Amino acid sequence: MKIHDWFDGPYPARVRIALAEKNMLSRIEFVSVDLWAGEHKTPEFLAINYSGTLPVLELNDGTLIAECTAITQYLDALDDSPTLTGQTPVEKGLIHMMTKRAEIEFLDAVSVYFHHATPGLGPHVELYQNAEWGNRMRDKAIRGMRYFDGLLKRQPFVAGGTFSMADITVLAGMIFASLVKLDVPDDCEALREWHARMQQRPSVQEWRAMVARGAPQR
Asked: Which residue segment(s) compose the domain that 44 sits in?
């Protein structure tokens, strides 16, 4: 299997952390797609993923699966022992609900802020920007942080009692927020405590080690 991604991208981080949780990193060939050079918007890459986003999973038979949730769902089901997407119908429903909320209320909001209210990936990629909209999404992301802080005051993980892809999605939001220097409000103590706990997970440490090794050779 191959993963088309960029080594430190917040969205690729979701799949890399999931792979580490499933002890599958050694089974993957990573194909570098340089976000900063706009390679994900070239005709060659758009032929792989119409949406022009990373990551993309390429199976050995050529099947292409994009979107982090879909990729994680596939990977988690390979061994018939799902640990990230839920086992019971209730678990599956709650995890998918919270994953979607983490995207809409936090991660994707940070992404819009980055692409519209900061230089983003540069003028060769950011062909249209609306700073007002970007700043509104920055404020939405902060509200999202407060929402998850309230949630984590009542339960140890984003979707309940166990670590799941919903936690990975909020982690990606925190990664992106750090990249754009969007601070977690001081009073979000539960979110900060959860984030500190997540840094101790072996999968997150493996992801951080991959990032520390730096950009791939070109």
From this structure: 2-81+205-212
CATH number of the domain where residue 56 is located: 3.40.30.10
Strands 2-5, 56-58: pairing is antiparallel
* Same domain membership, residue 95 and residue 17: no
Q: DSSP per residue over 154-172, as a string?
A: T-SBTTBSS--HHHHHHHH
pTM of the model: 0.96
CATH at 144: 1.20.1050.10
Tell me how far apart the alpha carbons of residues 68 and 72 are, in angstroms, rounded to a whole number: 6
Question: What's the token pair of residue 185?
Answer: 């409000």
* Structure tokens that stand for 139 in this block: 């404020």
Q: Are residues 74 and 153 in the same domain?
A: no
CB count within 10 Å of CB 171 equals 25
Burial class (CB in 10 A: 0-12, 13-18, 19+), 63: exposed
Could you report how far apart the first and last alpha carbons of the chain are, in Å?
Answer: 21
> How far apart are alpha carbons 22 and 100 in whole angstroms?
21
Length of the chain: 218
| pLDDT averages per 10-residue partition of the chain, 218 residues | 96 98 96 95 97 97 98 97 97 98 98 98 95 98 98 98 98 98 98 98 97 72
Closest CA to 171 of 6, 13, 3, 25: 13
Domain total of the chain: 2
Residue 217 lies in a domain: no
